Amino acid sequence: VHARLARGSAGNGCSCITPGLWKAKNRGKVRLRFLLDFGYATGLRASELVGATLGHVQTDARGDHWLRVTGKGRKLARVALPPLAWDALAHYLAERELPIAPMRWRPETPVIGSLEADSGSTISSVRLSGVLRRFFLVAAKSIEADHPPLAEKLRRPSPHWMRHTHATHALGRGAELTTVRDNLRHASVSTTSIYLHSDDVKRARQIGDAFTTDRRR
Protein backbone atom coordinates (compact mmCIF):
# COMPACT_ATOMS: atom_id res chain seq x y z
CA VAL A 1 0.00 0.00 0.00
CA HIS A 2 2.78 2.39 0.93
CA ALA A 3 4.55 1.68 -2.34
CA ARG A 4 1.46 2.41 -4.42
CA LEU A 5 0.81 5.67 -2.62
CA ALA A 6 4.43 6.69 -2.90
CA ARG A 7 4.36 6.17 -6.66
CA GLY A 8 1.18 8.22 -6.96
CA SER A 9 -0.96 8.40 -10.06
CA ALA A 10 -0.19 10.80 -12.85
CA GLY A 11 -3.54 10.05 -14.44
CA ASN A 12 -5.73 11.35 -11.61
CA GLY A 13 -3.52 14.17 -10.41
CA CYS A 14 -2.69 12.61 -7.03
CA SER A 15 0.30 14.09 -5.26
CA CYS A 16 3.13 11.67 -4.62
CA ILE A 17 3.60 10.60 -1.01
CA THR A 18 7.33 10.07 -0.86
CA PRO A 19 9.14 7.65 1.45
CA GLY A 20 10.46 10.70 3.28
CA LEU A 21 6.92 11.91 3.95
CA TRP A 22 5.88 8.49 5.22
CA LYS A 23 8.85 8.52 7.56
CA ALA A 24 7.94 11.98 8.84
CA LYS A 25 4.34 10.88 9.47
CA ASN A 26 5.53 7.83 11.40
CA ARG A 27 7.92 9.97 13.45
CA GLY A 28 5.01 12.25 14.24
CA LYS A 29 2.94 9.34 15.57
CA VAL A 30 5.83 8.05 17.65
CA ARG A 31 6.43 11.50 19.10
CA LEU A 32 2.75 11.95 19.91
CA ARG A 33 2.66 8.64 21.78
CA PHE A 34 5.75 9.69 23.72
CA LEU A 35 4.24 13.08 24.58
CA LEU A 36 1.08 11.46 25.91
CA ASP A 37 2.87 8.82 28.00
CA PHE A 38 5.71 11.03 29.27
CA GLY A 39 3.54 14.06 29.95
CA TYR A 40 0.90 11.99 31.75
CA ALA A 41 3.46 10.10 33.86
CA THR A 42 5.40 13.20 34.94
CA GLY A 43 2.83 16.00 35.15
CA LEU A 44 5.28 18.44 33.56
CA ARG A 45 4.20 21.84 32.30
CA ALA A 46 4.42 22.39 28.53
CA SER A 47 7.39 24.75 28.92
CA GLU A 48 9.20 22.15 31.02
CA LEU A 49 8.58 19.42 28.46
CA VAL A 50 10.02 21.39 25.56
CA GLY A 51 12.94 22.64 27.66
CA ALA A 52 14.06 19.22 28.89
CA THR A 53 17.29 17.68 27.61
CA LEU A 54 18.91 14.32 28.24
CA GLY A 55 21.46 16.11 30.39
CA HIS A 56 18.66 16.93 32.82
CA VAL A 57 17.91 13.24 33.44
CA GLN A 58 19.49 11.80 36.57
CA THR A 59 19.62 8.42 38.28
CA ASP A 60 20.27 8.36 42.02
CA ALA A 61 22.11 5.79 44.12
CA ARG A 62 18.89 3.79 44.61
CA GLY A 63 18.30 3.54 40.88
CA ASP A 64 15.38 5.98 40.86
CA HIS A 65 15.17 8.29 37.86
CA TRP A 66 14.62 12.05 38.01
CA LEU A 67 14.36 15.01 35.68
CA ARG A 68 15.84 18.37 36.69
CA VAL A 69 13.49 21.19 35.69
CA THR A 70 13.32 24.95 35.94
CA GLY A 71 9.76 25.76 36.90
CA LYS A 72 7.78 28.89 37.64
CA GLY A 73 9.84 31.73 39.05
CA ARG A 74 12.99 30.07 37.68
CA LYS A 75 12.90 27.63 40.59
CA LEU A 76 15.08 24.54 40.20
CA ALA A 77 13.51 21.24 41.18
CA ARG A 78 13.39 17.51 40.42
CA VAL A 79 10.47 15.54 39.02
CA ALA A 80 10.25 11.78 39.46
CA LEU A 81 10.42 9.66 36.30
CA PRO A 82 8.28 6.58 37.02
CA PRO A 83 8.56 3.39 34.92
CA LEU A 84 5.97 4.59 32.38
CA ALA A 85 8.00 7.73 31.70
CA TRP A 86 11.36 5.93 31.67
CA ASP A 87 10.17 3.20 29.32
CA ALA A 88 8.52 5.76 27.04
CA LEU A 89 11.79 7.71 26.86
CA ALA A 90 13.82 4.59 26.03
CA HIS A 91 11.40 3.60 23.26
CA TYR A 92 11.31 7.12 21.85
CA LEU A 93 15.10 7.38 21.80
CA ALA A 94 15.32 4.06 19.97
CA GLU A 95 12.81 5.28 17.38
CA ARG A 96 14.96 8.39 16.90
CA GLU A 97 18.00 6.12 16.43
CA LEU A 98 19.64 7.62 19.51
CA PRO A 99 21.50 5.72 22.26
CA ILE A 100 19.34 4.29 25.04
CA ALA A 101 22.19 3.89 27.55
CA PRO A 102 22.58 7.12 29.58
CA MET A 103 26.37 6.95 29.47
CA ARG A 104 26.17 7.41 25.68
CA TRP A 105 23.78 10.35 25.73
CA ARG A 106 24.72 13.80 24.52
CA PRO A 107 23.59 16.15 27.32
CA GLU A 108 22.28 18.81 24.93
CA THR A 109 19.95 16.42 23.08
CA PRO A 110 16.33 17.52 23.61
CA VAL A 111 13.97 15.03 25.20
CA ILE A 112 11.34 15.99 22.60
CA GLY A 113 12.80 16.24 19.12
CA SER A 114 11.52 18.15 16.13
CA LEU A 115 10.49 16.15 13.08
CA GLU A 116 12.78 18.09 10.78
CA ALA A 117 15.97 17.57 12.77
CA ASP A 118 14.91 15.07 15.36
CA SER A 119 18.17 14.49 17.16
CA GLY A 120 19.33 18.08 17.43
CA SER A 121 16.46 20.47 18.02
CA THR A 122 13.25 20.59 20.00
CA ILE A 123 9.81 22.08 19.41
CA SER A 124 8.26 25.22 20.85
CA SER A 125 5.52 25.34 23.48
CA VAL A 126 3.17 26.69 20.82
CA ARG A 127 3.97 23.79 18.52
CA LEU A 128 3.51 21.30 21.36
CA SER A 129 0.09 22.75 22.18
CA GLY A 130 -0.86 22.49 18.50
CA VAL A 131 0.15 18.84 18.29
CA LEU A 132 -1.90 17.94 21.36
CA ARG A 133 -4.85 20.06 20.23
CA ARG A 134 -5.05 18.18 16.93
CA PHE A 135 -4.94 14.87 18.77
CA PHE A 136 -7.81 15.82 21.07
CA LEU A 137 -9.88 17.08 18.13
CA VAL A 138 -9.41 13.76 16.34
CA ALA A 139 -10.31 11.92 19.55
CA ALA A 140 -13.44 14.06 19.90
CA LYS A 141 -14.58 13.20 16.40
CA SER A 142 -14.08 9.48 16.99
CA ILE A 143 -16.31 9.39 20.09
CA GLU A 144 -18.90 12.09 19.36
CA ALA A 145 -21.61 9.59 18.34
CA ASP A 146 -21.39 7.60 21.59
CA HIS A 147 -20.20 10.25 24.05
CA PRO A 148 -21.34 13.74 22.94
CA PRO A 149 -20.57 15.57 26.24
CA LEU A 150 -17.03 14.19 26.41
CA ALA A 151 -16.47 14.93 22.72
CA GLU A 152 -17.55 18.52 23.29
CA LYS A 153 -15.08 18.84 26.15
CA LEU A 154 -12.27 17.44 24.02
CA ARG A 155 -12.93 20.14 21.44
CA ARG A 156 -11.79 22.71 24.00
CA PRO A 157 -8.42 21.24 24.98
CA SER A 158 -6.09 22.72 27.56
CA PRO A 159 -2.30 22.27 27.54
CA HIS A 160 -2.59 21.48 31.27
CA TRP A 161 -4.85 18.47 30.83
CA MET A 162 -2.07 15.90 31.16
CA ARG A 163 -0.77 17.65 34.28
CA HIS A 164 -4.25 17.66 35.80
CA THR A 165 -4.82 14.01 34.87
CA HIS A 166 -1.44 13.05 36.34
CA ALA A 167 -2.40 14.60 39.68
CA THR A 168 -5.92 13.18 39.74
CA HIS A 169 -4.82 9.64 38.91
CA ALA A 170 -1.85 9.70 41.30
CA LEU A 171 -4.08 10.75 44.19
CA GLY A 172 -6.80 8.32 43.16
CA ARG A 173 -4.30 5.46 43.17
CA GLY A 174 -3.07 6.14 46.68
CA ALA A 175 -0.20 8.62 46.30
CA GLU A 176 0.06 10.93 49.30
CA LEU A 177 -1.07 14.51 48.87
CA THR A 178 2.34 15.86 49.84
CA THR A 179 4.06 13.56 47.33
CA VAL A 180 1.92 14.82 44.46
CA ARG A 181 2.37 18.39 45.67
CA ASP A 182 6.15 18.02 45.59
CA ASN A 183 6.16 16.41 42.15
CA LEU A 184 3.93 19.17 40.74
CA ARG A 185 5.96 21.74 42.72
CA HIS A 186 2.94 23.48 44.16
CA ALA A 187 3.71 26.07 46.83
CA SER A 188 0.78 24.93 48.94
CA VAL A 189 -0.87 21.56 49.48
CA SER A 190 -4.23 23.33 49.15
CA THR A 191 -3.49 23.83 45.44
CA THR A 192 -2.88 20.12 44.98
CA SER A 193 -6.00 19.17 46.94
CA ILE A 194 -8.25 20.48 44.14
CA TYR A 195 -7.35 17.27 42.28
CA LEU A 196 -8.91 15.11 44.98
CA HIS A 197 -12.11 13.75 43.47
CA SER A 198 -14.55 11.69 45.48
CA ASP A 199 -15.50 8.36 43.96
CA ASP A 200 -19.28 8.24 44.46
CA VAL A 201 -19.45 4.46 44.25
CA LYS A 202 -16.68 3.99 46.80
CA ARG A 203 -18.06 6.73 49.03
CA ALA A 204 -21.57 5.24 49.04
CA ARG A 205 -20.22 1.76 49.79
CA GLN A 206 -17.94 2.89 52.62
CA ILE A 207 -20.54 5.12 54.28
CA GLY A 208 -23.09 2.33 53.85
CA ASP A 209 -20.75 -0.14 55.52
CA ALA A 210 -20.18 2.28 58.40
CA PHE A 211 -23.88 2.88 59.01
CA THR A 212 -25.68 -0.40 58.40
CA THR A 213 -29.02 -1.17 60.07
CA ASP A 214 -27.24 -3.76 62.20
CA ARG A 215 -25.35 -0.96 63.96
CA ARG A 216 -28.28 1.22 64.98
CA ARG A 217 -28.08 0.03 68.59
Question: Can you give a write-up of this model?
Answer:
The protein is mainly alpha-helical and 217 residues long. It folds into three domains: 25-123, hpI Integrase, Chain A (Orthogonal Bundle); 124-154; 156-217, no CATH class. It is built from ten helices and three strands. It has helices at residues 2-7, 19-42, 46-51, 83-95, 125-143, 148-154, 161-172, 177-184, 189-192, 200-210, and strands spanning 57-59, 65-70, 76-81. A three-stranded antiparallel beta sheet has the order 1-2-3. A hairpin with a 5-residue loop joins strand 1 (57-59) and strand 2 (65-70). Helix 2 packs antiparallel against helix 4 (83-95), helix 2 (19-42) crosses helix 7 (161-172) and helix 5 (125-143) runs antiparallel to helix 6 (148-154). GO terms for molecular function: DNA binding. Belongs to the 'phage' integrase family. Pfam families: Phage_integrase (PF00589). InterPro entries: DNA_brk_join_enz (IPR011010), Integrase-like_cat_sf (IPR013762), Integrase_catalytic (IPR002104), Tyrosine_recombinase_XerCD (IPR050090).
**Overall geometric form:** globular
CATH C-level class of the largest domain: Mainly Alpha
Instruction: Give the mean pLDDT.
Output: 80
Q: How many strands, what sense, and barrel or not for the largest sheet?
A: 3 strands, antiparallel
Tell me how many strands there are.
3
